[in-house]
Amino acid sequence: MSRHETAALLDRYLKGETTNEENELVKRWLEENGNANSRWQDLDRSVKDQWLSSVFSEIKNTIHETEIKVVSLPQRKRRLWRGVAAVAAVLLISFALYLERPLLQSRLHPVELTALKAPVNQKRVITLTDGSRVWLNIGSELKYPKTFNGKTREVYLSGEAYFDVSHDTAKPFIIHTGTLLTTVLGTAFNINEDKNKHTIQVTVTRGKVSVANGNKLLGVIIPNQQISFNTLKEEVVQATVNSNAIVAWQQSDLHFDDMSFGDAIAQLQKHFNVKISFANAKLKDCRFTGTSLSDEDLDKILKVMCVFNNAFYQTKPDGSIVIDGPGCNN
């Protein structure tokens, strides 16, 4: 529990607005700390409230102020407040430890993660212990526990991966990608982190996915919907897309059906890990239908594409490829 939440709880306790469960929480906290227990039991309600009020004020001061202030009290109140301050300090520390014990335990006993990284020229597929399957694109990395023992199934992704998550309503599956949290119960979707463009894209092919930036919900998407998040500007865009085209990279075969030349070239870049650019930007909008190319090398695929789109290509000394030509509209 954060200091803000602790302050809110004490504020409601002093106003008599807490529930019986919350009252029991405060009592257990006091009973578990012997330094405060004997004094606390002997005090009446008004003094108890005064002591808790001092704790509440202390928490609020640490939230809103960073400088140390010295407060002068009248001589007749110093003895009382000296005792109050001593017990308040004990209560503040004890209460924080009591409420944050689960968090401290998780930090003292962190979950050991296994890292799987796909080489720059190869994809990887892994089946996790819960039956979920993950396809890693080239150069991407997944960190995951050997077993999911907690209340959630959490993994960490850098790069691009396609997830087919086994359904488990009792254990949500959470993917950490930078500050983005993608939460599902059982579905299929793609996550693509582009650090050069400062973007993270989540695209759903089956089921429903919740996407959040920290504690802020960005949206809930269904098949053929995508959330694109700019990590630099913290801007989010939700759109309808062709999810099959976006996740086609995970397949060994390349399929192009009613696709723009620009989108097809983007697939080729990922599949062959090569830089391909257009000298004539108008070529990107050309479309072709019913073409399926499989088990071909890049040169053969480009030759067919260029014939369809009235274009030609040239391979540069550095291995990059430039496509040019009048295009389909001329």
Walkthrough of the structure:
By secondary structure, this protein is of the alpha+beta class. Helices cover 34% and strands 30% of the residues. The chain has nine helices and 21 strands. The strands form five sheets. It has a seven-stranded mixed β-sheet, with no helix packed on it. α1 runs antiparallel to α4 (45-64). It starts with a helix and ends in a 6-residue tail after the last strand.
A few lines on this structure:
It contains nine helices and 21 strands.
Overall mean pLDDT stands at 76
Question: Can you count the helices?
Answer: 9
Order of helices and strands: HHHHHHEEEEEEEEEEEEEEHEEHEEEHEE
Number of strands: 21
Oligomeric description of these chains: single chain
